[in-house]
């Protein structure tokens, strides 16, 4: 039993080294420029080991995105994590928005640079599928946030949940995050402050939106 646990622990550590190496390489060299040999060398494993765990380069990139989104490789969905349960208990809608933006910033710091790699390779059919899948997952997550606001009666009455989700998806998109933090030189904290203010202005009734 101890031997099996030891093997499992080593396997987890190997996968994490591969994912860490692949994340850095994809961001630095792009999708086409990163090879399994590069990843194997950086992770100090053999190429067959990378193939064994992930099969294809697109499969490896998908796992890199999943781990970057969640912050770890535990098999727990993003919306089933403790921080989300805590977020749902926020009574003040402005606090709920701020916490959602803060959580999104933490995720975008990790995942937006990798999604930029997917975006740049969208002529590839597998990358197109990856981009579509990730877009759908982001919409589901932001839609869940909007649903919480709607069920608590804090959403602006002239907005449908779909419209509110559209606004949230747009303001918290990885594209806009990268434009402001990379091209414009904003800090993540500046992005959080601006995005929270914009969300509150657009989603809350005027009487509930905090003063700018």
Give a brief description:
InterPro entries: Homeodomain-like_sf, HTH-type_TetR-like_transc_reg, HTH_TetR. The chain has 212 residues and is mainly alpha-helical.
Q: Any overview of this molecule?
A:
It is a single chain. The protein is an all-alpha fold and 212 residues long. It folds into two domains: 74 residues, Orthogonal Bundle (Tetracycline Repressor, domain 2); 137 residues, Orthogonal Bundle (Tetracycline Repressor, domain 2). The chain contains ten helices and no strands. The protein is elongated and about 60 Å long. It starts with a helix and ends in a 9-residue tail after the last helix. This is TetR family transcriptional regulator. Keywords: DNA-binding, Transcription, Transcription regulation. InterPro entries: Homeodomain-like_sf, HTH-type_TetR-like_transc_reg, HTH_TetR.
């Amino acid at each position: 039993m101890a031997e099996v646990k030891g093997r499992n622990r080593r396997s987890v550590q190997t996968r994490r080294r591969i994912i860490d190496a692949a994340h850095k390489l994809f961001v630095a060299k792009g999708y086409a420029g990163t090879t399994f040999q590069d990843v194997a060398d950086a992770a100090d494993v053999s190429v067959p080991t990378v193939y064994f765990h992930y099969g294809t380069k697109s499969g490896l990139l998908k796992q890199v995105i999943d781990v970057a989104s969640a912050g770890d490789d535990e098999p727990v969905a993003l919306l089933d994590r403790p921080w989300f349960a805590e977020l749902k208990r926020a009574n003040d809608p402005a606090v709920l928005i701020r916490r959602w933006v803060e959580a999104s910033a933490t995720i975008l710091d990790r995942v937006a640079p990798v999604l930029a790699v997917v975006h740049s390779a969208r002529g590839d059919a597998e990358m197109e599928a990856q981009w579509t899948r990730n877009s759908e997952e982001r919409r589901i997550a932001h839609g869940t946030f909007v649903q919480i606001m709607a069920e608590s009666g804090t959403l602006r009455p002239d907005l449908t949940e779909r419209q509110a989700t559209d606004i949230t998806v747009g303001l918290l998109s990885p594209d806009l995050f990268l434009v402001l933090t990379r091209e414009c030189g904003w800090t993540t904290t500046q992005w959080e402050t601006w995005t929270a203010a914009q969300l509150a202005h657009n989603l809350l009734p005027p009487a509930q939106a905090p003063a700018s």
